[in-house]
UniProtKB/TrEMBL annotation:
<feature type="transmembrane region" description="Helical">
    <location>
        <begin position="138"/>
        <end position="157"/>
    </location>
</feature>
<protein>
    <recommendedName>
        <fullName>Probable membrane transporter protein</fullName>
    </recommendedName>
</protein>
<keyword id="KW-0472">Membrane</keyword>
<dbReference type="InterPro" id="IPR002781">
    <property type="entry name" value="TM_pro_TauE-like"/>
</dbReference>
<comment type="similarity">
    <text>Belongs to the 4-toluene sulfonate uptake permease (TSUP) (TC 2.A.102) family.</text>
</comment>
<feature type="transmembrane region" description="Helical">
    <location>
        <begin position="234"/>
        <end position="252"/>
    </location>
</feature>
<feature type="transmembrane region" description="Helical">
    <location>
        <begin position="7"/>
        <end position="31"/>
    </location>
</feature>
<feature type="transmembrane region" description="Helical">
    <location>
        <begin position="43"/>
        <end position="62"/>
    </location>
</feature>
<dbReference type="Pfam" id="PF01925">
    <property type="entry name" value="TauE"/>
</dbReference>
<feature type="transmembrane region" description="Helical">
    <location>
        <begin position="74"/>
        <end position="95"/>
    </location>
</feature>
<feature type="transmembrane region" description="Helical">
    <location>
        <begin position="163"/>
        <end position="193"/>
    </location>
</feature>
<keyword id="KW-0812">Transmembrane</keyword>
<feature type="transmembrane region" description="Helical">
    <location>
        <begin position="101"/>
        <end position="117"/>
    </location>
</feature>
<feature type="transmembrane region" description="Helical">
    <location>
        <begin position="205"/>
        <end position="222"/>
    </location>
</feature>
<dbReference type="GO" id="GO:0005886">
    <property type="term" value="C:plasma membrane"/>
</dbReference>
<keyword id="KW-1133">Transmembrane helix</keyword>
<dbReference type="InterPro" id="IPR051598">
    <property type="entry name" value="TSUP/Inactive_protease-like"/>
</dbReference>
Length: 253
């Protein structure tokens, strides 16, 4: 009973946070391998299954709200798809702790950069018209997608915790960055889900997977429906601080 309670509450709560901000999905593997005492491969399979649902539902609601640059998202996701396939393979040969160290160093730097960037421009509400705009550079977009896809598929991060702050840093407005990162998460999570699922006994995970997807999807749906009610500047600062705190926690505690 305790197992199911933790499973459902964790997926629902994390789902709400993902829908609101795009980040927090990386907490699921921690719950699975911590309180639920599951193996790493099972944890990653279940987590990436939830991330597929989160990406689909979240991106749909952000698109309805006009906060998804689909053209840019597709270009980014082409790189991520290839990166995720490689990331699953590399997970078998590279120590997990090394991968997570790299991931959270990038998250830490991204969060700090977002906070510093806040005072440099007042045009974020207009799509951050000044400065470097990654959407104007196809090569850089594909490389960013590939690198983040590799890192996220290896480490169990759904994608937005790394992609979202980087997109804001590279000239994408906050809500659009969340929408794009949720869309991008689909293409990171699909190959990762099938890759990790193929490495564990699937029959024993079916009921757990079904319940997790249902409650995670419900949380994402509710969160993304209410995302537009949050002030964009506040959202940006909150995500930056959240990214920094989580990175410090994972790096030093």
């Amino acid at each position: 009973m305790e197992f199911w309670l933790i499973l459902l509450l964790a997926n629902f709560g994390v789902g709400i946070c993902v829908g609101l901000t795009g980040v927090a999905g990386f907490l699921l593997p921690i719950v699975y391998t911590g309180p639920l005492l599951m193996g790493t491969t099972q944890a990653l399979a279940l987590s990436f299954g939830a991330f597929v649902i989160a990406g689909i539902l979240g991106a749909y609601n952000y698109s309805r709200g006009g906060n998804l640059d689909l053209s840019f998202g597709i270009k980014l996701s082409l790189g991520s798809l290839a990166g995720a396939i490689l990331g699953v393979k590399l997970n078998l040969v590279i120590p997990e702790e090394q991968v997570k160290m790299i991931l959270y160093l990038v998250v830490l730097i991204s969060g700090i950069s977002i906070l510093l960037r806040k005072e440099q421009t007042g045009r974020e509400a207009k799509g951050q018209a000044g400065g470097y705009q990654i959407r104007e550079h196809l090569g850089a977009t594909l490389v960013l997608g590939f690198v983040t896809g590799v890192l996220c598929a290896m480490s169990g991060a759904g994608g937005p915790v790394l992609v979202m702050p980087l997109l804001v840093l590279l000239g994408i407005s906050v809500r659009t960055a969340v929408g794009v990162s949720l869309f991008n998460m689909i293409f990171i999570s699909l190959p990762a889900f099938f890759g990790y699922m193929s490495q564990c006994f699937q029959q024993e995970l079916i009921s757990v997977l079904g319940a997790a997807l249902l409650f995670h999807g419900l949380g994402v749906w509710l969160g993304s429906l209410n995302a537009s009610r949050i002030n964009q500047g506040l959202l940006k600062r909150g995500i930056a601080v959240f990214s920094i705190l989580i990175a410090l926690w994972k790096l030093f505690l």
